[in-house]
Each structure stands twice: as C-alpha cells, then as structure tokens.
From TrEMBL:
Name used for this protein in its record: Activating signal cointegrator 1 complex subunit 2
Biased composition (Acidic residues): 586-597
Highest taxon above the source species: Eukaryota
Region of interest called Disordered, as start-end residue ranges on this chain: 1-25, 369-396, 549-686
Organism: Albula glossodonta (roundjaw bonefish)
Amino acid sequence: MASARIPLDEQHVTEPSGPMGRERTLPALHPERMEDRCFVAYRPPPLEGSPAALEEFLEHAQFISDDLDWLLGLPHDKFWCQVVFDESLQKCLDSYLRHAPRGLDPDALPASPAVADMQRRLHRSVFMTFLRMATHKESKENFITPAVFGEIIYNNFLFDIPKILDLCVLYGKGNSQLVHKMIENIFTQQPSYYADLEEAVPTVTQVLDTILQKCGLQLEGATASEPLKLEALGKPTAMTMSQKDLMDLVLYLCDSCTTIYSFLDIFPAACQTFHSHGFLSRLASFYELAVPDIEKAVRKRNFDDKSLQEDLWRRVSHSCRKMVEVAHLLLQHTCLQPILEGDETRTSYLLQGVECAWESIGRKRLRPAPTVASQEAERGGKEWEETTPGQSNGVQRGAEALVGPLRKGDNGAVCTVSAGELESLLSHIRDLLPDLGEGFLLACLQEPVKEDLPPVLSSRSNVFDDDEFDVFNRDQVDMSRIWKGRKQGENVRAMLNDKQHVKEQRARYQAYETVVDEVPVGPAEQGAGAATYVTDDYDDEYDDTYDTNQVGANDLDGDSDLLNRRPFTIPQVLRTGKQAQGRQVEEEEEEEEEEDEKVAAVKRDHFVQDPAVLRERAEARRAAMQSRRGHRPEPASHVAGRPKGQGQTLETVLDRRRKEANKSRGANHNRRTMADRKRNKGMIPS
C-alpha cells in the first residue's frame, strides 16, 4: 500500500496479479489500475416530450449519474487513474459541457418534474467531478505535487480553454466562488494555459467578424485574409436573410456574448489578455455596426409566431447588456483598478474631473474677451489639435473637465496666480495628462463667466401653484374668503331663512309645470310646420292582425340549417375502395342497429329483462363486430396451472415462459432488457 504523506505521483502499490496471484509493484498512477467501466455520452432532454422519449432520457441519464456517483466514491488514487486513463469518461464529460441546456435555452426548464429532477442531479454530479479534477490536494495524505498536477491536467487535456468557458457559463451563476477558485488553481499550477488563452482571443474576435459577415457588414479599415469574391457582394443582410438564419444568428450572438462575459466575470485576470489584443475597441465597433441592424430586423420583420419574435428580441437585449458589461469589466480591471490601487493623487484628480464633467453638462461656456494670453492659449490649443489628430472633441471636453477644479474659486471668480504657481500647476497637470498641449491647458485654466441663477419664485414647484390664493401669480384675490384666526359661524336662523337655493332651482322645475294636451295650429302654420303635430295621429284603417307574428323567422333557408339537416356525402361513383368499404360497413352497422331496435320494439312488453341475457347479447354483438374488423380475441391464459406436485400441461409451461419474457416490457422500467443490451455491447463485464 502507499505510504502516508507521499504525493500520489511518487507512490507505488503492491497488488496480486495473474492466475497464480503473484504480487507485483506498480506506480499509483498506472493504466492497469483503471477499472473496466464504460461511460455513455450525454444527450439533452427531448423537446417533443413524448412518454417514450422521456423514459429513454431518464434511463440514459440515470446510467450517467450512477457512473459519476461511483467515480466520486473512489479513493484518491483510483479516482485519478480513472480520470487520466479512461477515454470514455472524458467523452462523457465533454458531451455534457457541449449539449447541456444553458440559462436562455427553451429546454432549460423541462416541463416534466422527473426530467427536471434528473437534470439537476446530473448537473451536480458533473460539477463535482470537475471540481475534484481541479483540486491537487484533497487532504494531508491525498495530494499530488503541484508541478506534476499541472502537467497531468495539461498533457491529458483534462482542461482546456473551451472547457473552462463552458464551465463558467454552466456553473458560474450560482457557484461563482467555487468556479473562480477552480479556474484560478488551474492557471496557477499550469501557466501554459495563459499562452493558450493568448491564442484563443483572436478566435473569439473572429466570432464577431463572422456575425458581421452574416449581416453583410464589415469593420472600417479591416483587411480580409483573401480577395473579396463576386458572390460576396450579394450576401443577404439581417433584413433579407431567411427567418431560420436570423434565429440562428441571434442565438449564436447571445451564446457568444454570455460566454465571454461569464469567463471574464469569474476570472478577471483574463481581462488583461483580452485588452492586449484590442478586444475592447473591436467590441465597440461591432456593437455600433451589428446591433442596430439586428435590432431593426427583429423589430420590423413579419413573424408568423409572435412568441418567436419576443424571444429573439429578449435574446438581442440580453446580448447588448452582456456586451456593455464586458466593456465595464475590461475598463475596470485594466484601466481603473491599477490607478485606484497605485496612485491616490491621480485618482483624486480623475474623480474631481468626472464630478466636474457631470456638473457642467448642459451649461454653455462663454468665451472671454480676446487678450494676448487667450490668443497664445488658442494657438497652443491648435498645436495640441495638430499633434493629436486622433483625439475627438469629447476627449477635449473631458480634459477640460479634468482641469476644471484647478481653475475655479468658491464663488466662481477668476483665480489670480503668479507665473511660478501657474508653471507649477501646468507641470502637475502634464504629469497626469502627458498627451495634452500646454496651450490647451492654459485655455482650460481660464475661468468662464458664472451664470446667474434663476429666481426662486419662477423655479419653485408647489401643489398650490395657480390656485385662487396664489399671490405670486395672481394680481387679484378674493379677500372675503380670507380671515385671520377661527372663522365665526353664521346665525342658525339666518341660515334657515336663506332661500337662495330655492330660487336657483325654481327656474329648472318651471319647465315641468305646463302640460299641453292640444296644440292649436294657426292658418299660417299649415304645411310643413304642422306636419310635426300630426305624425302620431291614430289610423283606424291600419290592420294590426299580423304585427305579433314573426314572418320568416323560423324558416330553414340558411346554408348552415341545410347542412345541419343533411350531412354531405360523397356519391358512390366517386368513392374509392376504402371509402366504399367503410361506407358499406357503416350501413351494415346501421341496419343491425335498426334490426335490434325492431326486436326490442317487439319485446317491449317485458318489464325487466334478465341482466345475464343482456350481457350475453352485448358480448355476442361485440364479438361479431370485432370479427368483422379482423380483430383476434386474446387466447385464454393457463398461467395458474394445476396444484403443485401434479405436473403442468404444455399450455401452462408456454404461458408461464411467455409471461416471464414479456413482464419486463411495462414494469420495473425495462431494466432487464436494457441490462442485457449493455452486456451484449460490452458495457458490463460478463
């Protein structure tokens, strides 16, 4: 056995071998110490959700989960022998990393509770396996030399950059600390992974270029590795490509952005590698070019399925958010973090500049009168613009905001400094911002005129603005409604004698006082004016006999009524063989039903018929119907047989054998058949 406190890579074990049981000594990590076990590859949950597919997935996932639980239960030396030398185990783990559902996938949350529970169990088993594979020291007795551990995981491809990216996506959200320790230990014990990351970043950048090419776009100044072909000019854009291609493009973009963000968020040390390859500028250019076209295509194209359009829009929004967060991570860990940790003076100046920039948004800068100093500053500013043509006006405004705190007093007045003090200020600023010219800094140090604050009354906001007592906006106010102290109540007698409200309502009810039975019509009002008074005269000659009858209401003249009365039938000449045969069978059944009804009508005098007779007749009708349809009745079963000791007939023996062979079809989850199948394929040693 292995000695205690010795690394696994230096241990040797003595084991019996051969038919004679002779002992032999082998290294603790040796291929012959690996157990003969076959790990099957992972398959994702089925999308259609049929019972057969769900049962197959559950059984397949159960095999993988049981095998991984067995692997995690092995001792330290046996575990590493299985991990290093068992190729089927690595294929099983790789298949799960490639095909496991992501957070935004449609099948990420299976509908079946059994499938969801099995997926969670399998998800945990895979994570625990990778976590143990990334640990070189489990205890004081079980450990591997760090240098040898790095060689083992690197030379045997136990971990690589694609696997690490998938681990961050699958397990980073809920286990960020464990995944961070795992990846940090991998890169610490094997620095060669940093070189692999350097080679992988251009491939990640190529992903962005591929998406641009699919959209018919190209970065400005980008040079192609091969000449542009003629057919490339007619490539479809996001608006013209097929709906399936657009869906694949959005899924590809969403998966790529989520993977990059998860990796940089879990392992911030990789931000420096991405930044050294100019990934931030490429990402910004990609966002500016591709995102508007993709958003326009998803928003304005016509989709047959609106839920698909909503899902694509949700994925595009998620991708945009992840790209912005990736930019934040790169700026935080490559630009801001080194400054915050190493230069407090520079940090304070930058923070003051940012605060000043926020305060100066929306304010208009007034240029002072031209002086000699301002002319020199203007010339210096032009020189700075000529020396740095790549800088934009936004950079100038940002630099102006940075030096703003140095040139303002408490009350906005101009700070008067001597030539020596001014030179000292310029030297300090040039140390912090070496790219800026001296003339531009002098122009920024000049104090602009302080803007007058708006009056308080015009800028105030109150819930009582513009009401009847607002003396700031009204020239006249009803003073009768304003009094000092408590208002004296009116006299009760005076209040009761006040009939003002009665007078106000009198005019309203006067319109209802006069009731006119007859309206006299004068000679001048004859004609059109009098027609309004004679329209309601009673006509004694009108016949109202049929006023209450609904003529035509119950007629069956509509198409739907005709169809309800007589269904459509195909003429016998136009029927095919199957339709004619089916119609003949239906007619025979109808005739039999009519005969049964006739027979039943003859025997109506029976008050209660015998139930046994009714059951026999129903059974006879059912057997006749099944025989006409070609259905064979099930043979009688002889499984029970004779009592023990009297021997069994041939029918009993055959029925028992048939039951033994077919009972695994429905019960016990088909375990017997699948066990035989695994044994026939060599998965289980005989």
